[in-house]
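re: ur question from yesterday

yeah so i grabbed the chain u mentioned. its 218 aa long if i counted rite. heres the sequnce exactly as i have it in my notes:
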Amino acid sequence: MKEQNTHVTYTRSELDALPDETDWERVDALTDEDIEKAALSDPDDPPTDADFWKDATVVMPENMEEYTQRQIREALVNNQISSDERQLFYLNNCQGRAHSCLYGENAFFDLCGKEKRMALGIRTGDKCVVAHRDPNEPTGPNGMICFRRFIFSHGEECEAEDGTMCRVFFGDCYEAEHLRKEKACLHAEYSIFFKYCVPKNRSPYWRFVRQSVITPTA
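ran it thru and got these structure tokens back, copy pasting raw so excuse formatting
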């Protein structure tokens, strides 16, 4: 009767608990000559010589482009990957949070509480525009707004300063621009961060919206 194969699965903690049966003293005692002798005597991987390769042809896989995360980000910044392959997210840091100080290097935005369910479709390589007020500037029409552009690399669940768990966005900043509010609210792209208000008893004005993730309207 043919013996049946048995498939066994282990959790990471169970694997970590298994005893290490490697004889490390023997491994450390091996000389280069011992290692070479063992390799040459391996019946499953015999050594080859120049004659073995004389008729070989080098063939490279077609359409094989492997990008590291940094290469992906560089390609996106230089518009080498089409816009159809990425999304653009508008993120409003209306509270002026210093994310890199709170969560570590390259952190640029966070979503806490109910807002954690926003921007769930963000993927590695997507572009983000993050807006925030300059805290050293006035809040009126002459206040300075900073717009920074990032390439999203990944997200993590991190603990905020008050102990709550937040979704934190990480990535590289590749561009930054500062504009006065009176110019930013009329900007072709940045106007999405503002709302035109017409109150009854005062002059119309542009208000910096409070929504954290802003979706463009058609």
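noticed a couple things. The CA atoms of residues 156 and 168 lie 5 Å apart. also The longest helix spans residues 32-40.
anyway ttyl
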